[in-house]
């Protein structure tokens, strides 16, 4: 099969990319390893799975019809509701006829003689395409630490990112959850209600603030739909793709302790991810950050009855430097009689045993282990495919050879002509409301491919110097924040032997959009374009 474009993935990215290119008349096919649409929302079915972005902005904005015809139920959408939404989109836009499910792309090699990508599927089928576009997500390559004895466990074991479709029954069972990031913190309160006993194995405590979820009022929905153009403009040009902005546009240190307390209390009560926006310097000034961190620690003291448990739950790093978490009754769960907190920082997990697990201190008998141990973020999903550009150099080799992954705009790579990444490393991606970033990428890539057709361009490739400058810019921006001062999946520190680097553009989605638009307006500045006829390089 020879196509104009192959798109990998049928989540938020792949679905829209397929639609965008098909509408422009390009023969396009999407390949999805799972049995249906949804991407991470197809896979993350663990109890309590919910999005931390507010529903009304966690959707596509490109089609007024989609906006008007879909209605969200509550402020923070549950996994099942998001999955229904993506199914609704796939049906409405008639996308399934161009998606091949249950098909993993295993390799994509660039053929320099014919200027085509040669793409291989797991079942041995070869395709060729002019453009190779990845929509593989940033947090889709799950990570289970290589614990000794992992395969000897005789009970049930699940990773939150690959949850079974049938309901997992915890009743009457001794359950262990390893990991207290977003997934663990969402799952723990729900599992605790059902399990006979739940042990939470915590290595690093997370800062969590209340989601304060509620059902939407029908009038609010009507108003939202009527004003959607305004909402769309606001999120597209915002810092992080959200509606909330900095609550107090000054340093936290300009307020008195009493004023600060009131400010934090107000934003805490409001719920949602806006807590990090209470003041404008919480992510850049350690002293200011400490005031927010201390406030959350004081809340843990207030909520958790056993002071020793409360102490263990308090993080000591900068609030929001690791991904901040939203919860519903997380800290409260530790007041339940059937819940125990095990600190596996001071007493690490040594091995998984047939009946549970053993730490350096004691042995735990478990019927079920839930691995909420996260993901090989950003680069992990791309490395699952053997992607090779010019001279047979793989993306893995290119990125692993240096100490830092390099891309141009998070969209393209020098040495990999006619390949585009949706929310690739060094784009705003996971530091934004992701669908906003996805739409911007898809539209930019779609416009670019149309431009190439119109101008009879055979290949487009990022220039090495443009890539170098972009990576440097990303690094400088990140280094000016507290985000690089703490080990996290943002920096790659959660994966053994992964080169450290901060692989997200932190300048904001609005600023990023301006930069990308400028690059396009200048005839794709920073890219080499080779024309079909003349072989001329621009
Ligand atoms: P995260 O946020 O990476 O959390 C993973 C958790 O698992 C975290 O608490 C880790 O502790 C813990 N972990 C990882 N390895 C181990 C070992 N070996 N022993 C004990 N504990 C371990 O993943 P999530 O799935 O919760 O969230 C990912 C993102 O998905 C989330 O931020 C949203 O954007 C959506 P650590 O902190 O490394 O000490």
From TrEMBL:
Organism superkingdom: Bacteria
Gene3D superfamilies: FAD/NAD(P)-binding domain (3.50.50.60)
Obligatory cofactor(s): FAD
Signal peptide: none
Keyword Oxidoreductase: yes
Coiled coil: none
InterPro entries: FAD-binding_Monooxygenases (IPR050775), FAD/NAD-bd_sf (IPR036188), Flavin_mOase-like (IPR020946)
UniProt entry keywords in alphabetical sequence: FAD, Flavoprotein, Monooxygenase, NADP, Oxidoreductase
Family per similarity comment: Belongs to the FAD-binding monooxygenase family.
PANTHER family to which the protein is assigned, alphabetical: L-ORNITHINE N(5)-MONOOXYGENASE-RELATED
Name of the protein in question: NAD(P)/FAD-dependent oxidoreductase
